[in-house]
Design brief:
Layout lengths: L6 H23 L5 E3 L5 E3 H14 L6 E3 L7 H4 L4 E9 L1 H6 L5 E8 L2 E9 L4 E6 L2 E6 L2 E5 L8 E6 L5 H14 L2 E6 L3 H8 L5 E3 L5 H13 L4 E3 L18 E3 L1
Helix pairs in contact: 1-2, 6-7
């Protein structure tokens, strides 16, 4: 692991950072807040910024570089030299946050040589914590820790799709599934919770045929991976890799 820091200590630090970020988010969520738009027209709130600040302050104690949606993005010539990096989305699902539907998360991943080795996803409204590393993936609810995946008996084949970013290609994928599987339950969900549904076993597949960024997926990728799922880049037909020159992901399938 990182020199002088154990895997378990890094996981504990990431979980604590996610909790701190979640507190900042909920403080804003329970009051009125303004929404501005970034250059790419994606929404931004003070909750994104406050969560990012406390998460980065916490993770910086490891001296591992940080790539965060709301942080400073260094050029690839600098980033490509990093063996390890944190990849952070302090508030994944800002559109869901604005709608106040609870389907938003804090995402923190640790990546080594392009592959996620640790992931934490915190769901502030539910106080759920998903996390995964080489010891497996787990869901923590009210201090009860459940190993993933857990069995869900007698359910139809289930696919999950984006609530705020549907696409024709995704609809076509679902139509093809129905031809192959017969009964297919399609669930719409916001943020990285979609990946968590596959990781925990309540869904079978999550196709994403619309834009995402590295910070949207790295933490969920780790959790899915260590729950025994696959996270496949549709273009390369290989496991998704991170800290690329282009931070926008290719389409992918989690199953």
């Amino acid at each position: 692991m990182v020199e002088g820091i154990s895997e378990s200590a890094l996981l504990a630090l990431a979980k604590e950072a996610a909790l701190l970020g979640g507190r900042e988010i909920m403080d804003v969520y329970q009051n009125d807040f303004d929404v501005v738009h970034k250059e790419d027209n994606s929404p931004l709130t003070i909750a994104d910024q406050r969560a990012n600040r406390v998460i980065e302050e916490h993770l910086k104690t490891t001296e591992i570089p940080i790539l965060s949606e709301e942080g400073i993005h260094l050029d690839y010539d600098t980033r490509k030299k990093w063996e390890y990096l944190w990849i952070v989305d302090p508030l994944d699902g800002t559109k869901e946050f604005i709608k106040r539907n609870g389907e938003f998360t804090v995402n923190i991943a640790l990546v080594k040589n392009g592959l996620p080795i640790l992931g934490v996803i915190y769901v502030p409204v539910k106080n759920w914590m998903y996390f995964g590393n080489s010891k497996g993936s787990f869901k923590e609810i009210n201090n009860e820790v459940i190993k993933l995946p857990f069995s869900v008996a007698h359910r139809p084949y289930t696919a999950v799709g984006s609530r705020s970013h549907p696409s024709k290609e995704t609809a076509d994928f679902f139509d093809q599934l129905k031809k192959e599987k017969g009964e297919v339950n399609v669930v719409s969900m916001g943020s990285s919770l979609k990946i968590c549904l596959v990781a925990e076993g309540t869904a079978d597949v999550y196709p994403r045929f619309a834009p995402t960024m590295e910070w949207d997926t790295a933490a969920g990728h780790a959790i899915a991976k260590f729950a025994g799922r696959t996270f496949k880049d549709v273009n390369t037909q290989q496991e998704m890799v991170y800290n690329r020159e282009q931070l926008r992901n290719n389409w992918f399938i989690v199953e």
